[in-house]
TrEMBL record:
<feature type="transmembrane region" description="Helical">
    <location>
        <begin position="95"/>
        <end position="116"/>
    </location>
</feature>
<feature type="transmembrane region" description="Helical">
    <location>
        <begin position="409"/>
        <end position="428"/>
    </location>
</feature>
<feature type="transmembrane region" description="Helical">
    <location>
        <begin position="175"/>
        <end position="193"/>
    </location>
</feature>
<feature type="transmembrane region" description="Helical">
    <location>
        <begin position="64"/>
        <end position="83"/>
    </location>
</feature>
<feature type="transmembrane region" description="Helical">
    <location>
        <begin position="280"/>
        <end position="298"/>
    </location>
</feature>
<feature type="transmembrane region" description="Helical">
    <location>
        <begin position="357"/>
        <end position="378"/>
    </location>
</feature>
<feature type="region of interest" description="Disordered">
    <location>
        <begin position="1"/>
        <end position="38"/>
    </location>
</feature>
<keyword id="KW-0997">Cell inner membrane</keyword>
<keyword id="KW-0812">Transmembrane</keyword>
<feature type="transmembrane region" description="Helical">
    <location>
        <begin position="329"/>
        <end position="351"/>
    </location>
</feature>
<feature type="transmembrane region" description="Helical">
    <location>
        <begin position="213"/>
        <end position="235"/>
    </location>
</feature>
<dbReference type="InterPro" id="IPR001851">
    <property type="entry name" value="ABC_transp_permease"/>
</dbReference>
<protein>
    <recommendedName>
        <fullName>Xylose transport system permease protein XylH</fullName>
    </recommendedName>
</protein>
<dbReference type="Pfam" id="PF02653">
    <property type="entry name" value="BPD_transp_2"/>
</dbReference>
<feature type="compositionally biased region" description="Basic and acidic residues">
    <location>
        <begin position="1"/>
        <end position="11"/>
    </location>
</feature>
<comment type="function">
    <text>Part of the binding-protein-dependent transport system for D-xylose. Probably responsible for the translocation of the substrate across the membrane.</text>
</comment>
<keyword id="KW-0472">Membrane</keyword>
Amino acid sequence: MSTERIEKSDSAKPGLAKSTTPGDVPADAAKDDGTPVDPRLLVREEGFAGYLTEFKRRMRGGELGSVPVIVGLIVIMAIFQAMDDAFLSAQNLSNISIDIAGPGLMAVGIIFVLLLGEIDLSIGSVSGLAGAVFGVLAVQEGMPEVPAIILAILVGTATGAFHGFFFARIGVPPLVVTLAGLLGWQGLMLYILGGSGTINLDYDGVVVKLTTYYFTDVAAAYGLAAVAVGGYFAAAYVGARRRAAAGVPSRPMSEIIMRTAVLAVLAFVPAYVLNQYKGLPLALLIFLVVVAGADFVLRRTGFGRRVFALGGSVEASRRAGINVDLMRIAVFAVSGTLAGVGGLFMASNIAAANQSAGGGTLLMNAIAAAVIGGTSLYGGRGSSWSALLGVLVIMSIQSGLALKGIDSPVQYMITGSVLLAAVVIDSVSRRTQKTAGRA
């Protein structure tokens, strides 16, 4: 008798199995008439409780996203602020926002390569080569700065395509070809710079102003924040309307408003802080535009979908009709291009192109920023916003330690420890997802 009552109770809700908890809704849930129901709709119907349950489910399943790096960034900032009140001052935060541009742009490029499950070790040398080419053309040869900038960036594009060609068409592993590039392009940079080894740039020129120019009008920072928030709301609203019209799951207006409110806080608070010093730095503006543009390319274009497809399975991509060789060459060309752009920002920081450009920890910082920010070393998972989060972590650590006068060796050890922690989290996350059947 009790068995019959249980069966009747279960059959009263044919679309749901024994558990109706949003996070445990089966993928084949259906309405009374047999129409399939997307589990996300059931989560949204539960409101905040549903989202909280879904969040817990994702954490248990290893889908950590950007949560670890965001929590880590908050902890880092709290620790350094407790150690020195100057850490969260408007001046120091403004300086950090400029320092992240160079390695951050290079990290955006490396993300494209990491999404394939590959690596590019040449970006540091390519960045130094681009700076040297610009210095020779603009200063020694007297070429106008804009054409010199374009040619310097194209040098980065050409070196990236060169690496991609040897990987895609010849079959040389990226680790080997880019390691050869690291040495070869550094040698070419030293040859171009000549005996002096240093070319001082025009302090009033375009390149130097990349890291020295500020939009002092408060309307610039607030305007950028307003454009970002308004653009997100418009895109989310239009997207939801289109999905609803097509009869597919879409975000409710309450969720769109909540997400927009969170973004508004994240946009207007930094704008307020920057306006307390000199205003919006040009370097930060360019970096954010590149990050947003790369995010659009990866998530909204056929090129981006092919990149993720290749990172998931090369053979499946080939059978789907994707030109694997061309995509690999294009991705390495993107990496080289952004390495060239980053090299111009690094040259701007010191107002010179010299023999030490592209050396030191620049390569490791760029790669570490991508990985720490959440891009997987195994390919197929990541976002251009990973570069922003990761480089913020690295530069915050370096800035905080510099304020306390701590030596570089300690900075290296701490940065290395953070990188190792990020890789461990990525590995554990992937293993957890496989265990949960979500990998």
